[in-house]
């Protein structure tokens, strides 16, 4: 019973606020404290995670942020979403208009990765594709300040492998694994590579705290802690759907109403992104060699169809864009 209660609580914490919507924050707008040696940060990837990280950095740590994405469209969408979140907080009197304006003004955008060169802390949040992340960390080692921390938001890929791609900068590579939606979820999983220096770890923990987050450590194993527990649950729900054990509505209903999580696993998968879920399952499967992590065929087919969830308007459910 105790174990059951724990599981339910853990899932609730993990899934509590995936209903991102435009909820705004209920937290203080005051600066939480400076981090020694960190005067500017860069975030690479302006998708759902990157935009959230940029926002909390500009808001809670009052840091100037360079938000970088290879796609102009992603940048435009990110800035528009950040504005909506801030407007919501102004309408709820959580921020004044002038505070919201100052936060927005701290975020500048770019499509050029070379613009990380003035940042002291860089957080990569591009899609969960091993080769892409390795390429970016190789580039970061060349163009970032020689003292900058190079953090990844990967959900599952080995931090040690990513650090190796950074060559001589490997000791400055770490994972700060923010949870979705970033402005609301307080936990951040910190994972060190074999190469990570103690100084990199200390700075990363301080930055997470300055961003109003609660860091906790996980080992550099496939999926770390959060996704090693969460993704097999989601994958099993998809296997139940493809096996005809229940409809999508019934699967979501029994888990939502029966385990007191805010949404069922299929809705949750749509919010995370089915491409991201599949990528994580593949890492779990390939890196452990354990068949219990085999991604469901239906998950693969949904991604093949381009139905990757809320971000594209269609996953297990349909969403207005
Ligand atoms: N979605 C989640 O719930 C979640 C939770 C925790 C961690 N993560 C991890 O965070 C990372 C990002 O996930 P996301 O959900 O924000 O993805 P996303 O698809 O919403 O956004 C990724 C962004 O990266 C951009 N991009 C692609 N290639 C690029 C490049 N070469 N240079 C710069 N930008 C590039 C894309 O244009 C896109 O805007 C992944 O590693 C994912 O596993 C995701």
Automatic annotation (TrEMBL):
Pathway: Lipid metabolism; fatty acid beta-oxidation. Residues 223-319 form the 3-hydroxyacyl-CoA dehydrogenase C-terminal domain. InterPro entries: 3-OHacyl-CoA_DH, 3-OHacyl-CoA_DH_CS, 3-OHacyl-CoA_DH_NAD-bd, 3HC_DH_C, 6-PGluconate_DH-like_C_sf, 6PGD_dom2, NAD(P)-bd_dom_sf. Keywords: NAD, Oxidoreductase. It comes from the Eukaryota. NAD(+) binds at residues 45-50, 69, 128, 133, 155, 180, 311. It holds the Pfam family 3HCDH_N. The record marks 177 as: Important for catalytic activity. One of its GO terms (molecular function) is NAD+ binding. Residues 41-216 form the 3-hydroxyacyl-CoA dehydrogenase NAD binding domain. Belongs to the 3-hydroxyacyl-CoA dehydrogenase family. This is 3-hydroxyacyl-CoA dehydrogenase NAD binding domain-containing protein.
